[in-house]
From TrEMBL:
Highest classification ranks of the organism: Eukaryota, Metazoa, Chordata, Craniata, Vertebrata
Domain of life, source organism: Eukaryota
PANTHER family for this protein: IG-LIKE DOMAIN-CONTAINING PROTEIN, VASCULAR CELL ADHESION MOLECULE 1
InterPro entries on file: CD47_Vset (IPR013270), Ig-like_dom (IPR007110), Ig-like_dom_sf (IPR036179), Ig-like_fold (IPR013783), Ig_sub (IPR003599), Ig_sub2 (IPR003598)
Alphabetized Pfam families for the sequence: Ig_3 (PF13927), V-set_CD47 (PF08204)
Gene3D superfamilies in alphabetical order: Immunoglobulins
Protein name: EMB protein
Gene behind the chain: Emb
Ig-like domain location: 17-86, 92-187
């Protein structure tokens, strides 16, 4: 729905998991001041014609049978002002945790990927330099577990974590029109990491107490030596 305010450029994502016919409609708000606009549809930079039209709406039908049919489809309304709306046809995005996964040595790291539509297959990768290496839990049963929680939800568990497990991991969902990936960053900390602030505070206290004790010993020794000198002067 286009309000009809000058300079408006609306954006909408449309997930397409498998071949389908998709109808895209731009409808002008009835209260808009834009009257009888000239309407142009484009796929990327290529002009295409709309398949149906009513008084305030314009529709195209897109047959998506392969990945090359995905992309940006825009309607441009020109009159006293110009407004537009763009539909981004794409394979479904993978939802997952954006922040780094932070855990400790000996623990379990869990990563979960979820999509709007069920993919044909899931694949998990770990990064080795610049290469992605597929994770095969059957050959590393003591290290990795992959659990299919639902057709559109997959879960990777990394067991008995060590510092060497830190790095970047990916999950990939394969659809008939292409694949979609999600990146995870894993940070494995030493089990002593939570104790570092406490150890630092204890160290500061020990240093302070030691400094005070040494100062008192020095002051006491100076006092004793001063007393002996005073007695010698009296005797003289």
């Amino acid at each position: 729905l286009i309000i009809g305010v000058s300079g408006t450029a609306l954006q909408k994502k449309v997930s397409v998991g498998s071949p389908a016919k998709v109808e895209l409609t731009c409808k002008l708000d009835e209260n808009s001041n834009l009257k009888n606009p000239q309407v142009t549809w484009k796929r990327g930079s290529e002009t295409i014609s709309h398949t149906s039209k009513t008084r305030n709406s314009w529709t195209i039908e897109v047959t998506v049978s392969e990945s090359s049919h995905l992309g940006n489809y825009s309607c441009i309304l020109k009159g006293e002002i110009e407004v537009s709306a763009t539909f981004h046809l794409q394979v479904p995005n993978i939802e997952g945790k954006e922040k780094p996964v932070i855990t400790y040595e000996g623990d379990i790291a869990v990563m979960v990927c979820e999509t709007e539509y069920a993919p044909m297959a899931w694949t998990w990768y770990m990064t080795n330099g610049t290469e992605l290496v597929a994770i095969n839990p059957s050959s590393h049963a003591s290290k990795f577990r992959i659990k299919r929680q639902a057709a559109n939800v997959d879960r990777l568990e990394i067991l008995k974590l060590t510092k060497e497990d830190s790095g970047v991991y990916w999950c990939e969902a394969a659809f008939r029109l292409g694949g979609s990936k999600k990146r995870f960053e894993l940070r494995v900390l030493s089990i002593f990491a939570p104790l570092k602030p406490f150890i630092a505070v204890v160290a500061e206290v020990v240093i302070l107490v030691t400094t005070i004790a040494l100062y008192e010993m020095y002051s006491k020794r100076e006092g004793e030596e001063g007393g002996r000198e005073f007695d010698q002067i009296e005797q003289l």
